[in-house]
Every structure is written in structure tokens, then in C-alpha cells.
Design goal:
- Keywords: DNA-binding, Phosphoprotein.
- This protein has a five-stranded parallel sheet, sandwiched between helices.
- Helix content is 38%, strand content 23%.
- It is an alpha/beta fold.
- The longest helix is centred in the middle third of the chain and has 15 residues, at 113-127.
- Helix 1 (19-31) packs across helix 5 (113-127) and helix 2 (42-51) packs parallel to helix 3.
- The N and C termini lie far apart (47 Å).
- It is globular.
Length: 233
């Protein structure tokens, strides 16, 4: 890196079949120094992902040759560390919960382009933290072990498959030991929300995902203090 060059914050794979929307997204992301690849279909997206290694995929849910969520699953299977952000015109709770079931964020159409850039930046910040060093020892709490080098999680010696956002949430709870962490603090530190909307249910949704994956391997480990927040038992 020389002179006034600035390192790119990451590579984004934009999958959107409406050219006007794809162009706006690409222009805005490139303005903020992201490397951008654009595909208009599932087929094009898979071909691009085969040749390159994006950090985050921004996926329209409704594509001409398939479903963006199915594409997300395929991309995540090929690249487990890939962050997924969905673009959707559907804003029902069922659609949102379905998207968050394995993705890292969702954005409803019509959208504000500055919000899209901010959401992608926040997703990369929590899924690819800059402060993690290869020499860092594992985080431990009870029978939980989080490897800060490989971002892998084990409970009682058994592997727990987590999405990047699930990992970030569990890591923050582990770092806070047995303390109850307020919901607003989780939104700020895990999701990087500057303003925390009272109606947001994203924390509750991801806590339920973590419980589903952790509780099958042992006693319940996440506790709820109603009206306050969450912690580890």
C-alpha cells in the first residue's frame, strides 16, 4: 500500500436482478472503497463466488432463476465465514425471522443507500473483527470454549456450528461472564446499532437460535432477566 492509498474494507458480492438497483448499490459501495462484484442471477453469483472470495454477499431474495435464501445457504456452505445480508420487499415477521435464521442481517425495500452501506460495514465489523490476534488464547466459560483464531465453538468437547453473528453474540456474553447484559448494550456492541429501536426483536431472535444449538448439548446455558437482558448461567 503506497502514498494515499487506503485498504478496502472488504469485498461485496451484490446479487440483484434489477440493473438500476444493482448500479446504485455498486456505485455507493465503491465510493466507500469496497471491492464490488455484481450478479443478476443465482447462476452468475455462483460462478463469481467460484472465482473469487467475497467477504459479504448482499442478496435479493427474489431472483429470476431461484431464491436468494437458497443461494445464501449454498454460498455459506462453500465459504463458511461468508457474511449474508438479504434485500427483500417482504417485511412480515415470518420473512424476517426466516432470513435471520442463517443470515446476518436483512434490509427491506425501498431502502436508504446510506443505511445499506452502514449495515454492511457493521456486519463485517462483527463477523471479521480487527482486534483478534492469532496468538489469542481460547475464551472459556463452563463447558464452552470459543477459539478466537478459527471462530469455532465447542461445548463439552463437541463442535457447535454457529453463524458469524451467533458467534459474535455468544462471544460477547462469554466475555461478560455471569453478568446480565442489557439488550441495548447487545444491540450496540454486537450489531453496532447507534440508535436502539425499542421494537427491535433481533436480540431475542438470535438468543433463541443460540439456545436451540447449545441446549441440545447440555443444560440451558443462557439466562434471561425479564425487562433487563441476557447472561450465562
Amino acid at each position: 500500500m503506497t502514498g494515499g492509498e487506503t485498504k478496502s474494507p472488504g469485498t461485496v458480492l451484490v446479487v440483484e436482478d434489477e440493473e438500476s438497483i444493482a448500479d446504485v448499490l455498486a456505485i455507493a459501495l465503491r465510493y466507500h472503497r469496497f471491492e464490488v462484484m455484481v450478479a443478476g442471477s443465482v447462476r452468475e453469483a455462483l460462478a463469481l463466488a467460484e472465482r473469487t472470495c467475497p467477504d459479504v454477499a448482499l442478496l435479493d431474495v427474489m431472483l429470476p432463476d431461484g431464491d436468494g435464501r437458497a443461494l445464501g445457504r449454498e454460498l455459506r456452505a462453500r465459504t463458511p465465514g461468508l457474511a449474508l445480508v438479504f434485500l427483500t420487499a417482504r417485511d412480515s415477521p415470518t420473512e424476517i425471522v426466516g432470513a435471520l435464521g442463517f443470515g446476518d442481517d436483512y434490509i427491506t425495500k425501498p431502502f436508504n443507500i446510506d443505511e445499506v452501506v452502514a449495515r454492511i460495514t457493521a456486519v463485517l465489523r462483527r463477523t471479521r473483527p480487527a482486534d483478534v490476534l492469532p496468538q489469542r488464547p481460547p475464551l472459556r466459560y463452563g463447558d464452552l470454549e470459543l477459539d478466537e483464531t478459527t471462530y469455532s465453538v465447542h461445548r463439552d468437547g463437541r463442535t457447535v456450528e454457529l453463524t458469524p453473528t451467533e458467534y459474535a453474540l455468544l462471544r460477547f456474553l462469554v466475555r461478560n461472564g455471569g453478568r446480565i447484559v442489557p439488550k441495548e448494550q447487545l444491540l450496540r456492541h454486537v450489531w453496532q446499532y447507534e440508535h436502539t429501536p425499542a421494537e427491535s426483536t433481533v436480540v431475542e431472535t438470535y438468543i433463541s437460535y443460540l439456545r436451540r444449538k447449545l441446549d441440545v448439548l447440555g443444560p440451558p446455558v443462557i439466562t434471561t432477566r425479564r425487562g433487563v437482558g441476557y447472561g450465562l448461567a
